[in-house]
Design a protein that fits this description.
Elements: H1 6-18, H2 21-28, H3 32-46, E1 51-54, E2 57-60, H4 62-89, E3 94-100, H5 102-119, E4 123-129, H6 136-139, E5 143-147, E6 155-163, E7 165-169, H7 171-177, E8 191-194, E9 202-203, E10 211-212, E11 217-219, H8 222-230, E12 235-239, H9 240-248, E13 253-255, E14 265-272, H10 279-295
Helix pairs in contact: 1-3, 1-4, 2-3, 5-10
Length: about 300
């Protein structure tokens, strides 16, 4: 029977998830040679080749797949056990990696950090900001803050708040091109669309007939779409939490607020099953849920 430590199981799990020894070495801040020796010890313990090494990276052998499945199961239970005792000691410490979109980072989560840090000074945070969805296990993400529903049953979801989207344009654009008075009039305007998530280009209306937005300008990044609107390139549908302060500054104006349905999207925190009980994650989620309700109840 192999006599592996929990740390060796974590090492193997991270090698399997990241696919390169160098990535694991950077994560642990150790030389690659140390990771390689650790992997060799694990393979020697089972007298089996667990990892295939090629010029394209690493991949698991069938035996490696078996070990990865059991290792993840064991580590989830270890984390849950640690969580139970950490909870009784009421100590919240460690690094929390959080994935989120640019909009949520800049306009929601960054502002929440001063009070969260003051409450839990031993916590450290690493914000991974990207509009694209991430593989949480592979990237070592503790919490992903997104809109929508989970795409897999391996995730646990906690609702934090809601996000409204409405139409906005710059005063300069509306002065030059006129303000649309109906949804149909949008067809004669320059529209700014989302080039990656097509569902965001289907704008719900009060009449119940969705409007399909098409236009000369698009981006896969909500912050860039906002900049395009401010620059007077066209009309964009964007989160009100981003646009409303810009309206107050005179940089944007709302458009067709009584005709475009601003049905809110749920903002949720997603965690890998088994890790959601960790005190550091529970502390962050509880804080953010309360913070969003008190500072921006409708986002």
């Amino acid at each position: 029977m192999a006599n592996l430590s929990f740390d060796e199981l974590r090492l193997f799990a991270r090698v399997a998830a990241l696919g390169t020894l160098s990535a694991v070495a950077r994560e642990r801040n150790v030389p690659v040679s140390q990771i390689s020796r650790g992997l060799q010890r694990i393979e020697a313990s089972y007298n089996a080749q667990l990892i295939l090494r090629t010029t394209h990276g690493l991949s698991l052998t069938p035996e490696g797949e078996v070990l990865q499945t059991y290792a993840q199961r064991i580590l989830n239970e270890v984390d849950a056990l640690d969580a139970e005792f950490d909870h009784t000691r009421a100590r919240v410490t460690g690094l929390v990696r959080v994935s989120m979109s640019t909009v949520i980072a800049q306009h929601l989560m960054v502002d929440s950090l001063p009070t969260l840090h003051a409450t839990y000074p031993e916590l450290r945070f690493d914000f991974r900001v990207d509009d694209a969805l991430v593989d949480m296990a592979r990237e070592g993400i503790d919490i992903a803050i997104r809109t929508g529903e989970p795409q897999t049953d391996t995730l646990v979801m906690r609702r934090l708040g809601v996000l409204h989207r409405r139409l906005y344009a710059s005063p300069a654009y509306l002065k030059k091109n006129g303000t649309p008075r109906s949804v149909e009039a949008l067809r004669h305007h320059d529209l700014i669309t989302h080039s990656k998530h097509d569902y965001l280009n289907v704008w719900p209306t009060q009449s119940g007939t969705p409007f399909r937005a098409n236009g000369p300008f698009g981006s896969d990044n909500a912050a860039t779409m906002t900049s395009m609107a401010i620059a007077g390139l066209g009309i964009a549908r964007m989160p009100s939490l981003v646009a409303d302060p810009l309206v107050a500054q005179g940089k944007l104006q709302s458009v067709l607020i009584d005709q475009i349905n601003d049905t809110p999207s749920t903002v949720s925190a997603f965690m890998l099953a088994g890790r959601h009980r960790l005190p550091k994650l529970r502390a962050c989620i509880d804080h953010w849920a309360q913070w969003l309700q008190t500072t921006s109840p409708t986002c």
